[in-house]
Amino acid sequence: MIEANNLWKRYGDNVVLEQINMHVAEREFVTMVGTSGCGKSTFLKMLLGTESPSSGSLLLDGKPISSEPGPDRGIVFQQYSVFPHMTVLENVVAAKAFQRPGITGYLFGGAKKAARHEAAEILEQVGLSHALNRYPHELSGGMKQRLAIAQALLAKPRILLLDEPFGALDPGIRADMHELILNLWREYKLTVFMVTHDLKEGFYLGTRLWVFDKLRHDPQAPNAYGASITYDLPVGQLDQRLYQEIDDSLRPVYTGQSEDGLEGQP
Ligand SMILES: Nc1ncnc2c1ncn2[C@@H]1O[C@H](COP(=O)(O)OP(=O)(O)OP(=O)(O)O)[C@@H](O)[C@H]1O
User: Fold this and answer.
1) Distance 196 CA to ligand 1 centre (A)
2) 163 and 241 in one domain?
3) Does 148 or 257 have the greater pLDDT score?
4) What is the pLDDT of residues 124-158, one digit of tens each?
5) How many domains does the chain have?
6) Does 179 share its domain with 131?
7) Residue whose CA is closest, atom 31 of ligand 1?
8) Are 33 and 85 in a shared domain?
9) Are residues 169 and 234 in the same domain?
10) What pLDDT, on a 0 to 100 scale, did the predictor assign at position 261?
11) Per the UniProt record, which residue ranges are transmembrane (predicted)?
12) CA 17 to centroid of chain Cα atoms
């Protein structure tokens, strides 16, 4: 469904990503980890279509991903991206209105009624039916992310892009969100790409885990080389030593070597 062929991304002299090659089939759940600034969000933005490759190709169904976000792709960010002056229901109805090409964001009559009905249905699926008339400031962090997920799902996307969506949530709430996202992934038959800083979360949620890291590094010119996908693992095959190796590679000071034991097991 999605493939990258020798994909590179540069911002001026800063090589962010290099030599990315991958194939992802429909309905996979890819989790992505890597040190801060290594280009994970940039990669998601290329999948969304708001950034484009500097060279190489990124294809969806064999065609280059268009430079506009399309209804087949929805995204949820870590920062809550909802309209503060609208209720939960209005937020989702507004997301629906903005989906219509060439429209200013207003719906009238029958279209508005249908949108409200659809919005209420999707809000029930994400567990917010009791909060339709609340404003975002009256919601918890987890509830705000449920709302953002509802907005992203509204267009019935095939691909859901998640950029650390649970990074700001407490562990208990995160566990609830994990169950929600796994249920939605199955129910909506989604293909998911999710960035996380939490390796355990990556292994728990994904069918496949990618680690982004630099294959080559020049201390004199830190921007000369970009990150690639250094591990591409089917998640069912977790090995303690490998887990530790990846965990070590995600620490701020990357030594490249991991000779120590198996402390900090998942
Ligand atoms: N629009 C832009 N213009 C110039 N440089 C950019 C732009 N967007 C990102 N970058 C640079 O690209 C690099 C990768 O950024 P990106 O946000 O993709 O990293 P990340 O792996 O998602 O980081 P984090 O885990 O901290 O969120 C950084 O050096 C960043 O400064």
Assistant:
1) 15
2) yes
3) 148
4) 988 999 999 999 999 988 888 899 889 888 878 89
5) 2
6) no
7) 37
8) no
9) yes
10) 40
11) none
12) 17
pTM of the model: 0.85
Q: Is the CB of 40 under 6 A from ligand 1?
A: yes
CB distance 37 to ligand 1 below 6 Å = yes
Give 36 Cα–ligand 1 centroid separation in angstroms: 8
- Ligand 1 centroid distance, CA of 41 (Å): 7
Is residue 84 predicted with pLDDT exceeding 70? yes
- Asked if residue 145 belongs to a domain, the reply is no
With residues binned 3-state (H G I as helix, E B as strand, rest as coil), the percentages for the chain, rounded to 5, are: 35, 25, 40
- Clarify whether residues 11 and 53 are in a common domain: yes
Q: What is the ipTM of this complex?
A: 0.96
Flag whether pLDDT at 255 surpasses 80.
Answer: no
Q: Are residues 61 and 107 in the same domain?
A: no
Q: The domain containing residue 90 runs over which residues?
A: 79-139
Question: Is residue 253 scored above 80 in pLDDT?
Answer: no
Assigned domain for 151 exists: no
- Minimal CA–CA distance to 82: which of 136, 36, 118? 136
Residue in 38, 210, 254 to alter for ligand 1 test, most ligand atoms within 8 A of Cβ = 38
For residues 67 and 116, state if they share a domain.
Answer: no
Q: Is 41 in the pocket of ligand 1 (CB under 6 A)?
A: yes
- Number of the ligand 1 atom closest to the C-alpha atom of 51: 1
Distance CA 178, CA 184 (A): 10
Q: Do the domain assignments include residue 146? A: no
Residue 157 near ligand 1, beta carbon < 6 Å: no
3-state secondary structure of 208: strand
Axis crossing angle, helix 109-125 with helix 141-153, rounded to the nearest 10: 130
Tell me the per-residue pLDDT of 169-194, one tens digit each, with 9 for 90 and over: 888 888 888 889 999 999 999 999 99
85 found inside a domain: yes
